[in-house]
Amino acid sequence: MNYELKRPKLIPLALLLNLSVVWFLTHHYWFNFLLTFLLGTATMLLLFGKRAYYDLFKKGKTSFWFLVSIWFWIKLGDLILSGIYVGIRGNLDQFEHSNSNIGSTLPHLSDKIFWLCKAMFSAVNEEMMFIPILLTLFVLMKGNKFSWYVASFFSGIAFAFLHWGAYVLQPAIIISLLVTRMALNETYKKCDSIRGPMTVHFLLDLTLILFCLG
């Protein structure tokens, strides 16, 4: 990956834009489901330029079935972690998503379809926000192998805390979200395209959403 910061002086502005997501998410505006996509796009264009932005979306180097296997291993890891948690605490209450009962609160099929469309787009949104964060940290740390994992770890911490409204952020949830984010980052590295982590994230969200609507 040969990314280069074109406008490093704009990093404070990009940081401010990304931090603003916290404020927006505390206010239930209708456009919130597009917010992370827009902020991620702005960050990528400001710091890396148009060519790097378009390069994110090039055809990936891995097969679809490789991406499905990543989805499988992430879900298996979640099941193992939740099983350990149940063994210690005796219940899964802390692992429940805030929308786990959405199926019963949306009685009309049209409402469920609209919610489903918004929720499914979150996979695209979040990858568009966190891959630029990952790349910025990676480049700032001089872009060696060690710095990739440090950047991936800190982007994972940010990813976990972005979900403060969806889960009760206790240690098991933070670890689960951190590992998921780092796995998605590795998918991007292997695939060399944002399409890879977007696909895996889409499959992860689809699994959760089908459970919530059940």
Question: Layout of SSEs?
Answer:
Elements: H1 11-25, H2 32-48, H3 50-56, H4 64-89, H5 102-105, H6 109-140, H7 145-162, H8 171-191, H9 195-213
Helix pairs in contact: 1-2, 2-3, 2-6, 4-8, 4-9, 6-7, 6-9, 7-8, 8-9
Protein name: CPBP family intramembrane metalloprotease
GO molecular function, one term: metallopeptidase activity
Family: Belongs to the UPF0177 family.
Annotation keywords:
single chain; 74% helix; 9 helices
Query: Quick one: overall form?
Result: globular
Oligomer: single chain
Q: Which strand-content bin applies to the residues?
A: under 5%
Helix content: over 70%
Distance separating the two termini: 41 Å
What's the β-strand tally? Answer: 0
Stretches where pLDDT is under 50 for at least 5 consecutive residues are none
Order of helices and strands: HHHHHHHHH
Q: By helix and strand content, what is the structural category?
A: mainly alpha
Total number of domains: 1
Please tell me the overall pLDDT. Answer: 83
The value of Rg in angstroms is: 17 Å
Characterize the biggest β-sheet: none
Number of helices: 9
